Amino acid sequence: MAAAHPFDHPFEEEQPFLDGQFDIFDWYPYFQSCVRYFLEHAQFNGPVQALAAFINIQLPFQKPQTAALLARSSPSPGPVPGPPFGGGGGGSGGGGSNSGLSPGSAPPPPHHQLPHQHQHAHTSLQPYIRRLVATGFDFPAVLHGFFGDDWELGIRPMHEQERRNFLFAAKSSSWLEVKRAYDMGVDETIPFLKPLKNVSEGEIVAAEAGWSEWLAMQDW
């Protein structure tokens, strides 16, 4: 058996949510870019705040512990006005619009930003991706608006996996059980569930293969 190269990483093996090779080390800088964009720009944009309110999920600056820190350090953040989603939301991620919501949206003024170290250390994007998928708002314009120009390289792998998870949840449980699984505490219950939109044949084939693997795991 050949010895492993000292720089080979098990993370570089084929991943279940991607075709071909997925290099986690190439992916990570793009993911970090998406986190920074979401925390420093998107959460203060009016359309993002409106959609978050509609699907009943708190943005980081709205969470109690963050709001307390913000109140001690700066004025209360308000939304940056902007038209609805769509200013650069095509499949390519918009190609140049910084906000992803409208060509004219400006980033928030500096006093809207919490200390970066605090934000980046305690914020996960997974709940937002899950909520967008389960409510049918996970189309490119919205993903671009939430996560910026690098969303395709930084968020797409997680987005594809969450779509598959949602398919598996629907296949294995009742509507009520799925809803409970996607609730996030009493203050952030999911208001509605919508079937996946724009499901491709390749996505179905991959989901069927993944489901068969899971059944084999159950039957071992």
Give a quick rundown of the structure.
It comes from Staphylotrichum longicolle. This is Ilp is an apoptosis inhibitor. With 220 residues, the chain is mostly helical.
Walk me through this protein's architecture.
With 220 residues, the chain is mainly alpha-helical. It is globular and about 50 Å long. It has ten helices and no strands. The model is unreliable at 1-7, 9-15 and 87-113 (pLDDT under 50). Helix 5 (126-134) crosses helix 8 (156-172). It is 49% helix and 0% strand. The protein has helices spanning 24-40, 46-54, 64-73, 116-122, 126-134, 140-147, 151-154, 156-172, 175-182, 201-218. The longest helix has 18 residues, at 201-218. It has one domain (21-195). InterPro entries: Verrucosidin_biosynth-assoc. Residues 85-98 have a biased composition (Gly residues).
